[in-house]
Amino acid sequence: xxxxxxxxxxxxxxxxxxxxxxxxxxxxxxxxxxxxxxxxxxxxxxxxxxxxxxxxxxxxxxxxxxxxxxxxxxxxxxxxxxxxxxxxxxxxxxxxxxxxxxxxxxxxxxxxxxxxxxxxxxxxxxxxxxxxxxxxxxxxxxxxxxxxxxxxxxxxxxxxxxxxxxxxxxxxxxxxxxxxxxxxxxxxxxxxxxxxxxxxxxxxxxxxxxxxxxxxxxxxxxxxxxxxxxxxxxxxxxxxxxxxxxxxxxxxxxxxxxxxxxxxxxxxxxxxxxxxxxxxxxxxxxxxxxxxxxxxxxxxxxxxxxxxxxxxxxxxxxxxxxxxxxxxxxxxxxxxxxxxxxxxxxxxxxxxxxxxxxxxxxxxxxxxxxxxxxxxxxxxxxxxxxxxxxxxxxxxxxxxxxxxxxxxxxxxxxx
Length: 415
Prior knowledge:
This protein is of the alpha+beta class and about 425 residues long. Helices cover about 40% and strands about 20% of the residues. It has a 6-stranded mixed sheet. A 4-stranded antiparallel sheet has the order 11-12-8-13. A two-stranded antiparallel sheet has the order 6-7. The radius of gyration is 21 Å and the shape is globular. About 55% of the residues are buried. The model has no long low-confidence stretch (mean pLDDT about 95).
């Protein structure tokens, strides 16, 4: 049963009523541009056919009552429940959605049923699919009148409240994706454009066998990199004599010609406290996260992280050109360079991911790399159509699977 039908059936069997709305949100794969979005730099993801569906109906009680086909513990949360207080990770996304909607839900709660065919903790954005689908269903059920851009922004806020200081890529591609195309997303200034995929190409994703839950240790590792790249941005701006208002992002300095050269002048490691004093910026701009405050005295590997982000942003530009030119070999080389940078400079790959990428490439992929934040999860490979089964078989032999073909698909919708 597809997720939309399954969510509606689960709603009926649980609440003995019909849902007022059913929303479906796809997962996503990031082809290239890893850990660049929260730095204000471009990404090149696409939505996939696998999805999460949420069935919703308003209730008079000021509660979120929710069940999930995939998670055994149901939720019964007051509307003002804080995400951090939720013991069950999936409950945090429910509480965070209620928090960002705030007064739009005037004392009324909702009954919710969730079904998904997205692997959890995979790097395929199951948490973002849940958040976008939930907000879209609540929007329809309550008649909130949210536009797509507002919905994507609220979903990103909700995920940050749930614990991971994400940059907004996942929510935007899930909301705006087009079938048959990648979605180039820029953040400074905001822009999006579809990049059609050549007909003779195929994409395969495969599990490394290691979960990468955004709510677990991967969240802490992710947030460390958010803060470390803010430190790098503040120090580079100070070296370049550039003024940054608000939170320092590498996107604020990336266009300055000297920035990539000066990366090698950055300290190998620094704390936020020391960087703030050096650059003359308020400490809170570096360490404040939506879900709390990062340790200002933690020593973070600033230079390597900055080197990856600035080089990865250039690879996004080159990858767009390669896709538009139909140059599969060039794209494959960029993906290989991206994975090497994520492994060596950003330190978010694992031996299992490295072995998986190697096996997929050896089996005929033009290129492969980890996708999502890393620390486990999935890898993505691109190959000529006709070679996808060999790549899938090699991935399963290397890591145990699952591995499957994915195709660029349309974004979130009401069922």
